Amino acid sequence: MTTHETSRAEWRATPQRAAVLRALHVRDGFASAQTLHAALVADGVPVGLSTVYRTLRFLEAAGHVDVVRDREGERLYRFRSADGHRHYLLCRECGLSLAVDAGDVERWAVRIARDTGFHAVDHTVELTGVCARCRPGRPGRPGRRPEEA
Amino acid sequence: MTTHETSRAEWRATPQRAAVLRALHVRDGFASAQTLHAALVADGVPVGLSTVYRTLRFLEAAGHVDVVRDREGERLYRFRSADGHRHYLLCRECGLSLAVDAGDVERWAVRIARDTGFHAVDHTVELTGVCARCRPGRPGRPGRRPEEA
DNA sequence: GTAGATGCAAAAGGTTTGCAACCAC
DNA sequence: GTGGTTGCAAACCTTTTGCATCTAC
User: Fold this and answer.
1) What does the buried/exposed string (b/e) look like for B36-56 if buried means 16 or more CB atoms within 10 Å of the residue's CB?
2) How far is the CA of B142 from the C1' of D16 (A)?
């Protein structure tokens, strides 16, 4: 996966792209383009929002990140682990994300595809919840989202 | 629970709302607000886009429709069937939607929740593909027409 | 030197909202 | 009459794109 990929346009190393990659690594949960951009700017890295979007799109096309959508439809990005673990359990409070084994779901999807005669069946599986640490006490004490930076 | 629901503002019957409901019924696959609005206008029903959106939001809040997002992030609405069948296999070409049995996935989600200690785990499961009728080229397999569930 | 990258601002989509006019009850 | 409803337009948000400038190779 670290192959040079000369198939598409050359990837030119720039400080901005390095910064986006770093920002993605640091918070290894999901993050939106806007959040990453804000974090970079806050860190004193002068990078344009367009560049963040372009870099993320490139990473997405290259298969280096997984993308999910939050409730509002915003895209969230996360580095893809080694092979194909692409399903996550995401904490709605703090953004913590756990890769989960979705073998059962993969097999289920294949079975559905076969049973229905559909082709090129793709699946989206996202789990969200509240992690043990964010376990809501009572309504009066909201946990405030610690992911906010 | 899903009875009269007088809990929120009264639902006042209007021609526009009736039209949106009708439009949703007619195409009982998923449809976007924009698509519904266009269809209504084309049918000579003068209804504003805002009203379509507002009606759909109301239906969503009342739990009468299921909502998924297509690849571009557009919201697609569909009447929710009686019980709780909320997972669909959607044809990317024609929009045909099949309700699929997701019992396995439901159980898988519950198991994941238990194993991870997460609370209030919610799941999103969407299957998309190309139905037999829309299958491009590839002659030889007279795909059976899946029945709308 | 040059192909490619950056950043600004403006555009593009989809969705929501402010507000005056409207209509069902 | 009153209060919910409508519709237009403008506001909002996220994401994309045009273009002149800049830079990594």
Assistant:
1) bbebbeeeebebeeebbbebb
2) 40
